[in-house]
Amino acid sequence: MGINFRNRDIITIDDFSRQELEYLIQKAQEMKKLEKSGQRYQLNKTLEGKKLASLFYENSTRTRTSFETAMHELGGTTFGFAGPEGTSLMKKENILATVMMYWANHADAAVMRHSKDGSVQWAADVLGIPVINGGDGKNEHPTQALLDLVTIDELVPGIDGLNIGFGGDLAHGRTIRSNALALSKFNNITIHWAAADELAMPEDLIDTLKKERGVKVKRYDSVEDVFRNSNIYYMTRPQKERIKGLNEAQINDILEKYKIDMHKILSNPNIKILHPMPVDSSTAEIDITVFFSGNQYFIAQAENGVFLRKALLYEILNETDHILFNSSIDEKVAAANDKDYITKSDDPNKKSDINEKPYVGKIDYGVVIDHLEDGITAEIEAKLQFSKRGYRVTSVLHEPSTKTGKLKDFLKIKDKLLTPREIKEIAMISPNATFNIIKDRDVVEKFKYNLCKNENCITRVVNEDVPPKFDKIGKDLRCHYCRKPYEKLCQIIQNLKNS
Ligand code: CP
297-308 pLDDT, tens per residue? Predict the structure, then answer.
């Protein structure tokens, strides 16, 4: 069949072909048959001697325990952490150093959950062992999507032609993104959804589903309308820890109309309710009476997580050799890709332009930061504390641009270059900043620091020092870590070339 998961990273559901999804569904169903026929430990020699690092920066009941159960039932062991307490994360150790320690302690694979989008891709880039995404921020939860498919396939065998309803918090829930992308690999899928504007399905996801994948996506005003058009309803909890600008009472208020109860189920008594769980007992987005009804399939769905994760670990680790620890990290991992630094022309006549500008003045060695937002230098100084740290900085404020006349600020730093972290911090404050590196009175490099536009991306956590990178995926440039589109990059390159 040509399907091979050995030593493979599992970061996004989008990396799977339909054939691979169907293969894993079948393998999970085989694991379920073993369990239900009393043969739970039949494969308990398979991963003997293998170790799974279980790295849960964020809370989890199902994902963490089902990975651990799966590993134990296949004869392997697990070690790691559930929350930072008791680890050196409390001493602000970064992801890079933390995850490396588990490989140094002979992990054969790792499963990781973290609050930042793209964080698990970063761990996978750093580590030489396979890494499984147990949920990264509001980005993805690929093994949840796989177990959802196992459950959906039990309820609607074949999946093609599925009418599925989505509800709850579609904006911040990673399960919705992964589930929708997984379903998009099947034919004739329609997603019906109803949610408050604040919790609506993300536009970029709708665009991908409709324009690239041929999935029909239909929005309704009421849950009852969604029920009437769906075989399965996939409810999700409000991701209160990720919703900015609303308190708990406000979140509960906006969700009220979209909660599931037995009265709403009357609009389609055959509707099958799924939920990745946990259900938030304070919001009660699913009324407790639904738990006791024949419409409730989410507890069986959670058990399918054990079978799916058992199948996945079997496929990734069976008959593999331990990958020996390597303490050196590939330079390519540490560097932003070349295309994200835009080097100015080598034309010697242009090289000294920056020094000839009267408001910049002569500088032998250092950095001139151009195109800063008008009036922003005070904020940069407050954040980076250049003066306090002995940097020789001159600020030039409110200068009209020679091209547009728009006011802008400059910073001139003498006798010192900036660290990648300092450059990132400045770009985060003033995204259009252009950095001119000056050596021997020449501009030897001129670039703009292109940040991922997703504010929850791991590349925007300064302490983690993850360099921005963009990959070409299909027609889009996407962040290498969180895979959010970066459509403006080409325009920025063009603007710089013209400037
Ligand atoms: N579905 C899910 O990810 O549950 P946990 O948060 O309990 O792992």
Answer: 999 999 999 999
